[in-house]
TrEMBL record:
Keywords noted in UniProt: Glycosidase, Hydrolase, Transit peptide
Membrane-crossing segments per the record: none
Pfam families: Alpha-amylase, CBM_48, ISOA1-3_C
Family according to the record: Belongs to the glycosyl hydrolase 13 family.
GO biological process assignments: glycogen catabolic process
Stated name of the protein: Glycogen debranching enzyme GlgX
MF term (GO), any: amylo-alpha-1,6-glucosidase activity
Glycosyl hydrolase family 13 catalytic domain ranges (all copies): 197-610
Organism: Vecturithrix granuli
Amino acid sequence: MAFIFNPQSSIVTGIVERIDIHPTHSYKGYKLRPGRPYPFGTTIVPGGVNFSVFSRHAHYAELVIFEKGSMAPMVEIPFRGMFLKADTDEPVWGEFRIGNVFTMTVFGLDDENIEYGFRMGGPGGHVEKGQPGFHRFDRNTILLDPYAKAIGGRDVWGKTPNWEDSYQHRARVVRDDFDWEGDRPLEIPMEDLIIYEMHVRSFTKHPSSGVKHPGTFAAIREKIPYLKELGVNCLELMPIFEFDEFENSKISPMTGELLMNYWGYSTVGFFAPKAGYAATGKSKDGTMVADELKTLIRELHRNEIEVILDVVYNHTAEGNEWGPTISYKGIDNSTYYILTPEGYYYNFSGCGNTLNCNNSVVRDMVIDSLRYWASEYHIDGFRFDLASILSRDQSGAPLPNPPLLESLANDPILGKCKLIAEAWDAGGLYQVGSFPAYGRWAEWNGKYRDTLRKFLRGDPGQVGDMVQGFQGSSNLYYGRGTTASINFVTAHDGFTLMDNVSYNGKHNEANGENNNDGANDNNSWNCGWEGFTEDAGIQTLRKKQVKNALAMLLVSQGVPMILMGDEAGRTQLGNNNTYCQDNDLNWFNWALLEQHADLFRFARNMIAFRHAHPTLRNRDHFQHRDYVGSGYADISWHGVNAWNMDWSSDSRTLAFLLCGQHAKGGTAKDMSIYVAANMYWEPLEFTIPALREGVRWHVFANTSLPAPDDICEPGKEVPFAEGQYTYLVGDRSVVILVGK
């Protein structure tokens, strides 16, 4: 309703109803009117729901509406054809289409109790599976809305679907009316982050987790105290967009278990959270699923923990010409995918197809999706899987100035979001250090991971590269700052940290692929025995190596990322590609926290140490000089002898001194830090650089010592004896000193 106001008399003179709440057409008892073309997807409007879907090549489209869970549609309404005039029931021609967008408003729908899809017709006709085709229109197939905010059909994790259902993945309407109670994204400075990579289901699914709803968003809320105790301040969630866990499922020849699409790197819809990850998923209410995730994010923010989503915009769950038609193929195949001149799918993702991300329509969909997650879910940042694909043009060639990457970097709504690239793809494009950054993008630093693993196991010739890694890889990111480098030793791809020191080779037989899947270049070392052993000496060495890796990671400039469970010695029994395992290989066994209490204590104290010392969190690269007049350079390099670094190819030792006064906001009270890493197989005595008068070295960590002497709580370090200028660094050990 609108009031008409006469400013001269200050009297309300009349009431006029909104015109757009009145239907103009009728079809089988449903009242309609031409819709609004934007935004795409569904929008709740006064009295009804607006539906909008793009297709450049479709000649024909129908809106198919179901009662939630019903096999048969309530109604199928064409977007063009003969209708009745709403007020007279006279026949009238109608076309609910603007440009290449089919759109209509349907009145009187119970939006909380419907599901919907589309049928599309166009050139090319039906294309048989396995055959190429630029268009794959088939009026017999009901298609999922690419902009669906909630998707049904896989509401309960692992529940066998009804394969007779002609519409497997069902679009639902969501009411975005969540009460955020004043929450907003945290905007923690990038250099202050400590990222914890987590799989939603794996984190709490194990019976030892003790939560009410294992494997769900709600269960993570119960574990927030644990995350706070550990000290991480950012969760990176592996894919939570709707996917089909039954995609390419099969029976393991070894265990007889069902192997699933467990990790979820195969998106069905880019706007909908995974219903199977919600305790409320079984309610089949898309709004409840959304609200459960939003509640988790709100509670994490209240505890000063950011949320980064691992997003997969490089391909979809539809696969290649043999794959299913779920949505994009049947709506506008040649727009959404990069196709060969013959009409096959380019496969730069290694998963069957490649999204045509630098087509303007697809680019807009990606941006709309990210904006939606940033604005409606308060997401703090995004990690882009196989992000180099996003730099390819419509023929697959890398672009020097990719419009999508530039648009994301400069987007006003995403202006405070962290943007992190996995800077390679399965087509051979490797851009670590050269990803188009536009002053915004950070990268998973795969070169840092490889170097640290090689140095950890005692490979020769690694000292120079390790020096770069400790400094935030200025050789890769000069001019971009240290925060361009996301440093990690382990991630979901590859070994866990305990497996990296327990296995020389991968053991992926349980995946049913004859151990052919997964990477072969693990740069690991089993410490003398492959896999489980009761040898106490090997067990001690492995724990020491885990602590060495954590110590070096957390004293490196850049942004550290820790894999879920590495702080407790989690193992995948040598499987370095657990993408299909919904079992103990992926689940976090919380009993490990007691079994490996010393590892957890070490990780917790190392994280606290990083938080306590700004000199470990510089945003800019070191200048290798004294520019504050402290008498010391911001960083200086040492070896067994102070001020004398051994740069030879045979060297397996290095040390560095950080002057605390050069840290951001540094003062004369800021403490210096000395780190000595001896990856040689014998103990070595290091001469320690002298400090200014009145300042003494204190031992914070020494990985060669048994717990609890291996590490202190920050602020409770053990002082050097008067006149002590040397320190024995054990074989394969790291020592960290604080000058105060």
